[in-house]
């Protein structure tokens, strides 16, 4: 793989006017997925939950990310903590699902941990020579918080969280996201590579066609201006689109920071590796795409509205209308990305040319490839472009 990576993506990294999509291998090679797990998912900051989902001491949620079990909890002092969800005896997950607990008891042989990850009890271990219960703690993971979003990283020595979130904070910090509340969560397992869904969320080319009966109807133009960052992040600062309701008109109270904006104000961002972010005057939606296998993934969505909407009588009609629309739009997207996955193995499949509307998609692919194979995969292309601009 590595000996050909410099040329494999050559056409993908040309200027978008000359470029073609990525080879199917990027979406169906188990070796690529393994590299992504090691180089991306075990190194990056990953959004796992909102702070409001763990309001009280003892509240916890568990995850399996990149084959790593994680437990996220609020400790007695009210701080959010993250641990490897792995018993120090043989490694069984000490908690599953979510809930509230004063301590965690491993279901296999009963070792007991407090919310600080300290091993508090281990029966029949007195004769185990050199075993020091007090020295046993669950491995702790770094936690970062921004706007009510909790991020965790599996890296021992990660990029500082402030550095990671800087661009996003500059773009979206003014929204005071910590004041918003969850009205809806969605969770879907899809038969496709995780990157296809991340790409789909920055692909505005399809919106007027695939979603012609819903959001496509309300979008004035899909020919948008992209702000592409070297860290792979993609922003569309402002575009004109209706909100996700039957008519495209606002159905809920505006987010306070957007009071002065047009009712059709929209904004979007991609926070690498796997978080897609959309702003409308009345809600913010956040989607994460997680690999379950090279051709399987889980997509989770979290939709936030103002506290007034979520705590008041408007909640039920607003959220239920939104859900009908969202199910329709996502259902349309899911069918496309699963079809794309299928074709990556087809004998006649040749990646086709890109439209200039696919700059965001191209940027994400380029960043992903650079993370796997180093910047030389793209640099080799730049040199080649000068030598032969039509390749
Ligand atoms: S694996 Fe947890 S107590 Fe044995
Ligand atoms: Fe879509």
TrEMBL record:
Q: Where is the Rieske domain?
A: 45-152
What Pfam family does this protein match (any one)? Ring_hydroxyl_A
Task: Name the InterPro entries on file.
Answer: ARHD_Rieske_2Fe_2S, Rieske_2Fe-2S, Rieske_2Fe-2S_sf, Ring_hydroxy_dOase_asu_C_dom, Rng_hydr_dOase-A
- Identify which cofactors the protein needs according to its UniProt entry: Fe cation
Q: In terms of domain of life, where is this protein from?
A: Bacteria
UniProt KW Oxidoreductase keyword: yes
* Protein name, per record: Rieske 2Fe-2S family protein
Listed A to Z, the keywords are: 2Fe-2S, Iron, Iron-sulfur, Metal-binding, NAD, Oxidoreductase
User: Does this entry carry the keyword Magnesium?
Assistant: no
